[in-house]
Amino acid sequence: KSKVINKAITDIGMGMYQWELFVLCGFGWLADNLVLQVVALTLPSLTSEFGVSSTNVRYTTCATFVGLCIGASFWGIGSDVFGRRLAFNTTLFLAGVFGLAVGGGPSWVGVCGLFAALGVGVGGNLPVDGALFLKFVPTASQSLLILLSVWWPLGQLIGSLIAWGFLTNNKYACEPTLKSCDITAPPCCSKADNWGWRYLNITVGAIIFLMFVSRFFLFHLFESPKFLLARGRQAEAVATVHGIAYKNGRKTWLSEEILNAIGGDPEVVDNTKLSTVEIAKRFFGKFSKGRIAPLFATKRLEFM
């Protein structure tokens, strides 16, 4: 049934729905590198305001990457369990909310915690957005997944330009020679004199939240047809394909009768619906010994 749905999507071809999805998935890739760039640029300001050593302040990056790892793992699996649509929207929502919250961080530890929470959201973008994009793109156009990488350096560029406006302006940043008021007497670097990094993160958080608004309110994302099939929701899967065809101004030959003729009616046949446990097992099956072992079959492959 999945192969038939893929054939139907391929016959519909590339259209408005796929190109809009390309842009919205690109937002996720942009946000990923945007956050990484901003975290790196924020470190010197954290040292100045909170009195953290230049060595220990690097744990801010560590906290962010812990969140990214958790987010990538959770949303990668969760999108197969809860659905791509929920994961697609929630990742940017969390990134936007906690991105805004970072600007109000009360302490260095608090900022690290907020960056970690931000990472949990933005960390799911690459695995979820890339997989979702492939679900709706015709087979002949799946190479466009590589083209999504153009959004990655754009995020770095935007982050650098915003930081240039806030962090290089003495009106919003402390002098590099000043130490934190937490560890020395005036003249020192206080919160009131060091709002640049906060404005930077608030601005970036607002941008990411606007990306979420674009996804959730300005674009109707259909649930993945394969996910719907796995859940026994065949009628919705067919309706999704027809919705894509309508959005692209075309028609499709797919119908429930065709799918029933191939694998039976899900209302009658019991084994057409996968449980949550079965979906999880199928996901982790991708990392089985049988699939990984060939990568180390010879000495040459081991060191490549």
Give a description of the structure.
With 304 residues, the chain is an all-alpha fold. It is 67% helix and 0% strand. It is elongated.
Element pattern in H and E: HHHHHHHHHHHHHHH
For the biggest sheet, the summary is: none
Total count of helical runs of at least 4 residues = 15
**Which of globular, elongated, flat, extended, rod-shaped describes the shape?**
elongated
Q: How many β strands by DSSP? A: 0
| Percent strand | under 5%
Would you identify the regions where 5 or more consecutive residues have pLDDT less than 50? none
Provide the residue-averaged pLDDT: 88
Cα-atom radius of gyration: 23 Å
**Helicity level:** 55-70%
Structural class by sheet pairing and helices: mainly alpha
End-to-end C-alpha gap: 38 Å
Q: Summary?
A:
With 304 residues, the protein is mainly alpha-helical. It has helices spanning 2-12, 16-50, 59-82, 84-102, 108-122, 125-136, 144-147, 151-167, 196-217, 225-230, 234-247, 256-263, 276-284, 289-292, 299-302.
